[in-house]
Each structure stands twice: as structure tokens, then as C-alpha cells.
Amino acid sequence: MNLMESSNKYIITFIIIMTVVAAVSLAGMREITLSASTKNEEIFSKRSVLLTVNDYLGKGLNVNDLSDDEVLKMFNEQVEQVVLNINGEIVPNLLAEKIDLSVEKKKAEADRLLPLFVFKNEKEKFYILSVRGSGLWDEIWGNIAVKSDLNTIAGVTFDHKGETPGLGAEIKDNPAFPGQFIGKQIFKDGEVAVLVRKGGSQDKTYEVDGISGATITCDGVTEMLQRGIAYYLPYLETIEN
Amino acid sequence: MAEILEKVKIEEKEPFFGPKEKKLLLDPLMDINPITVQILGVCSALAITSLVYPSIVMAISVTLVTAFSNLFTSLVREYIPKQVRMIVQLVIIATLVTIVELGLKALNFPIWKQLSVYIGLIITNCIVMGRLEAYAMANKPWRSFLDGIGNGLGYGAILVIVAIIREILGKGTLFAGSPVEIKIIGNNATYLIDTTTSTMFGWYANNNLMVLPAAALFIIGILIWIHRTINPKLVDIS
Q: What is the rounded distance in angstroms from the CA atom of residue A231 to the CA atom of residue A127?
């Protein structure tokens, strides 16, 4: 390497030019890929909504085997999107998929909006609630499908931003963890009672087993479920009556 | 003046793709393999090799990044101020990695989700920076580019070998998640060898250890052992 010591002026000029080139090429790439990746994200979140009612889609259907177009078609045909305010009243002219819970979390409690997806098959209606909370490192979130008795869980999906692979990330990566929630009851005397129990569930009606080595993530899931589902209580009470 | 002209002539005579170029491309696959000989880039090799398909995507991503960062660094190598050499290299690598990540997010979202942080971590993969420092800073663009491709492929080859072993033994499948998934051995009729009906393989069960990163460490260790047995010259290098 025959590099010479350079003057400060040269270094600064070089760095500025380099930064501009890097910034322009990154911005350009982002601009080119934006529409495709937004569409991918949209399909991904629709898939995760449908995955909560995977057992009720119809005979032999599995969300993971469906193509992107089939997911969009099913979502358009069978899912109704509702936006609620904190008092459980429907806010008209809004789409549930446009509601970002991480944005809502920062608002004052009274102004928050809640997304609700209603999935219908031939026999039954499912209410799919969205919740968001904190894990060990970063945010965790999930969807919970409630059967039309408004108490039994039909299925859940969880996702996370940065939990440890093999430990906290198991809430998403290991299908057995969300699988445990199927059939659990949510409410006990009007309170959210479903929870993740460290060391193994005791009351099988409401509790699921925690993951060893991921106590904080599991506590985060419990907190997220109990707080998140409680927001939907006013609405669930109105449809119950 | 005459001297310079002569030098130019000699350079022109060098073939576009001669034995030297071939060596640059093929040596990293065996004799100076980044993983088994130089023990670089092991972190991501342990983390993402539980399935073949993501490993192939990772191998392609790393190859693109090493090739183009080598190329761009080599192009500007005479203008890079000595004091900020490393920063310049890092900016080049980081820019390319981000471009690859954005591209992957648009082209194959599930794989992007699966590789998660490891795409971003290509930036810190020692192979990339190592090649910039060791080769691209002192060589011409075309050769640097080939060196980058060679090293990327050498890394990718080990990744894919480890992933094939881990996926077959751990999951009983090959290329799971891709359009050409092959189901090899498992407990229902969709697999080539059905353990519930096969008399020969009735005892077989997937080895869950293979799904964990620890298995990759063992396999890479065994590969290094085999590699040094075949080529005893390597033993002295370390």
C-alpha cells in the first residue's frame, strides 16, 4: 500500500463525496424496492392474522401453503376490518390494517384506536384482536383469535423485533408455544385470566407453559395479553349483549 | 517514457482470464478457504446453516458483498486517505450490505425474515474486511473482484455443505421453504422414506441437536479435520 498522509482538507472532501455517493445509492435502492417490500409486509401481516384461525379456514387449507394471491383473496372475502376507540365504539371509515399499535401506544389512553379483524367462515365468526407489548430486548406483538362465545381462544400468533433466537424468539419460531393457547379460556369473572406460567401451567383452563430461559419474554407475553385484551372488553361486552 | 510504454505493453499482454485469475477464483474454495483454513466468518456459519435454502441465499449475499466491496475499494484505492482507510472500507461494505438487504426484502420476504439480523451482520463478517485489507487495497479492480467472488464462494460452499448435513439429519428435508423442497425421511407418506411403514428405517427419528447451532460447530470442526487430513500442508499453517 503506497498511501500518503493526506491533508485534512483532502480527507474532509473525500469523506463528504463518499457519504453523498453512499446516501444517494441507498436512497435510490430504497425508492426502487419500496413498493415491493411494502406489499410483502402487508401480505405477511395478513398471513399472520389468518394464521390465528388456521384450524377454521376450511378443509385441508393451511395459511403457510397458500400463495400470496390466495391469501389476499381470502382476506378480502372473509375478513372484515373494524376500528374501535377505547370505549368500544366503532370508528367509521378506517381500516384495521392501517392501525399501527406502536404508534397508538404513544398516544394518550383515551385517544387510542384498536384494530379488530372479524373472520367469518360458513358456521362461525371469529374476533381477531391485536396486542403489543415489550419482551426482553424490544417490542413483541401478536394476534389472538377469539371464538364467537367471546371467551375461547381459537389460535394466536406472536412476533417480535429482537428476542434471542432459541430462547425468547421461540414465541414465534416454535409453533408449539402459540399452539398451547388453542382452546384456553380468556376471561374469569370479567377479568383477563389467560397467562404464561413459569415452571409449567397450573390451571389448565387459563394457563400455558412458559419457555425455560425466556422468563422475561414470557412475562412480557402475559402482560401484553392481559393489558391488550382488556382494551377490547368494552366492545366485547356490547356485542355480547 | 520508454520504460512506461514498455510497462503498459506488458500489462496489456496479460490475459483477461489467465492462470492467475483462475487461482484467485479457485484457491479460496480449497487451500485458503475462509472458514476451514482461515477460520473467519464462523459466527454466521453457525447461526444460519440449519436449512439449506437460507444458507444459499446467505452465500449469494456474502459473495455479492465481497465481490463488489473489493471492486469498489480497488477502484478508489489510490485516492483513499491513509488515516481514514478503515472508515472508508466500512462505509463501502455497509452500503452494499444495506442494498443487498433492501433487495432481499423486496424479492424474498420470508427468507429476509428468517435471516433477520444475520444479513446486517455481513458488515462485521471478517472475510469481507479481511479481503479489502489484504487484497483489494493493493490490487487492480478486476482481480480484486475475482478474489471477492472466490472468497464468497469458498465461504458459501462450507455453508451449504454444513446446511445439507444439518437439514437432512435434523429435519429430514432438503431445500425446505424453497419451491423445490424435497422431503427425504419422516413420519408420514409425503416423505421419500416413510418411517412409519419402512421396515429398514422404522427406528429413525430426526436428530434435534442438528437444528441447534452447536451441531454446526461440530460439523465445521469435522470438516476442518477432513480438510487437513487431505491436505497436510495446512496443518503447519495454523
A: 14
